[in-house]
Each structure stands twice: as C-alpha cells, then as structure tokens.
C-alpha cells in the first residue's frame, strides 16, 4: 500500500525538476560539443598552412607542383633546399636574417622600455593632461599602421633617413597597444601602498621603479616584448617603402623579392622551393621565443583579467 501511494507523489514532485535538469545538462553538452568543434576548426585554420609549409620545405621544384600539398614528394629534398637557401646570391639570406634580428630585437627592446615607462606613469602618477594623453595613446591603437606608412616615409625622407636601419627601427619603437597594456597591468600589479612604503624608506622615484616596480612588471614587459618582436619581424610594408638596397632588406621583403623574381621568370633558376624553405627557417626564431617566454606571456595577459 505504502509503495503504491508514494510512487505517484514522488513522480509528481521531482519529475519536472529532473526533466529540466536533464534538459539543461543536454543543452550544456550540446553547447560544449559545438564549442569544441569550433575550436578544432579554428586550430586547423591556423595549423594547416604551417603543416603545408613544413611539408613543402622537403620537396624539390618538380614535386612541389606535381604532388599532393599535404604529403611528401618522391624525393626528400630538405637538406638540399637548406643548402640552396644559405648559398643563393652569395648567402644573402643570412644577411637578411641578421637584419631581421637587428630590426626586431632593437625595436622590441626599445618599444618595451618606452611602453613600460609610459604605462607606469599613466597608472601611478597624476599630472596635468594625463587623461588626455592616455586617450590619445588609446585612440592611436585604432589607426592601422598601413595608413601611417606613407606619412612616415615622407617625414623620414625629409630627414634623409630612408634606406637606413633607422627608418625601420625608429617607427617600430612606438607601440600604443603596449602603452595601454602596461598601463592596465601596472595599475593591478603594483599596489600604491608598496610605492608609499618605498618612498617612506627613502627611495627615490627612479630607484623605486627600477628595484621594486620593474620586478613586478616583468610578465607584462615580456608580453609587450613578444608582441613588438612579432610585429617587427613580420612587418613587410614599412621596409618595402623605406628600403631600396637588398643588403638592408629583412626576411619578409627579401623572400618576397626572391619569390617575385622566381614567379616572373627573371632568373634562369626556379627558386620556389628555396623561398618556401627560407620561409620555414624564418619562423623558427619566433617559435623558439614563444616556447621560452610563453609562461611570462600567459601570466601577463591573465593578470589584468581578475580584479581583487
């Protein structure tokens, strides 16, 4: 009797709730599957060109156009392609590589220093016009660098700095996004009480910045450094309009000029495999930099996402 009378009550009291909970769980599972599929598609979108580049680097010119793009050719020609990359045009690829390291390294270091000091000043000091200046820096983030290339060229041409290393390094030192990022990072990472304690102990502003604040800003500085390094390393348009001497080219412009000459048939030797292998070699330093600095980069990006 008890079993017979309690069963309908239990079913009437929990049935709709269980049904709603089951529907909610099914909805979450469906949403998770959709997000997983979307993430896999995005990952493939970014990884497939890299996979194609790595495989194409192992092919000679004949296999490059006669075999499937995502599989290896009949001959494994990676080593001969690498030899051609570093010996073509009297080893000009090595010169382009050194130029790229110089441009990207100096520009990233300088941009990190300027962005850190500017962001720290905007975050921790109050001075006349600070909000207006930061608004101008924030607005500069919205301006595409391509739109500034021609005015920059005219300014550097008037100063007789075109076709020099400074025509690449000086414009790359300016990083409005880096200033914004360091301003947000410094506001959260450095407590005002810590700065007050350093001042009470007799430390000047410069000593406080170098010995106290800079240590706390290190993850953010690495993030800005990586962003600036990648931006300058991959910059193509600015070196293209600023430089007209091949010995000053970075890898982006040099490989593009080499590919254009090969596609136009200007040379007696087809250089498609050489250009592709050179492109593969050119991304290796960036991959190494991300592998060694990614933990600082991740902590730098995540630090501003939680407000205590």
TrEMBL record:
Question: Can you give the residue ranges of the ABC transmembrane type-1 domain?
Answer: 97-293
Annotated segments matching region Disordered: 1-25
**Keyword annotations of the record:** Cell membrane, Membrane, Sugar transport, Transmembrane, Transmembrane helix, Transport
Q: Where is this protein localized, as stated in its record?
A: Cell membrane
The answer to whether UniProt assigns keyword Cell membrane to this entry is yes
Please give the GO cellular component terms listed in this UniProt entry.
plasma membrane
Transmembrane stretches in the record are: 34-55, 101-122, 134-156, 168-186, 216-238, 270-293
Q: What is its main location?
A: membrane
Give the bilayer topology: Multi-pass membrane protein
Check the record and name the InterPro entries matching this protein. Answer: MetI-like, MetI-like_sf
Tell me, what's a Pfam family for it?
BPD_transp_1
Gene3D superfamilies recorded for this chain?
MetI-like
Q: Where is the composition biased (Polar residues)?
A: 1-13
PROSITE patterns listed in its UniProt record: ABC_TM1 (PS50928)
A GO biological process of this protein is: transmembrane transport
Q: Which PANTHER family match?
A: ABC TRANSPORTER PERMEASE PROTEIN MG189-RELATED (PTHR43744:SF12), ABC TRANSPORTER PERMEASE PROTEIN MG189-RELATED-RELATED (PTHR43744)
Q: Describe the family membership recorded for this protein in Swiss-Prot or TrEMBL.
A: Belongs to the binding-protein-dependent transport system permease family.
Protein name, per record: Multiple sugar transport system permease protein
Q: Which organism is it from?
A: Kineococcus aurantiacus
Q: What is the lineage of its organism?
A: Bacteria, Bacillati, Actinomycetota, Actinomycetes, Kineosporiales
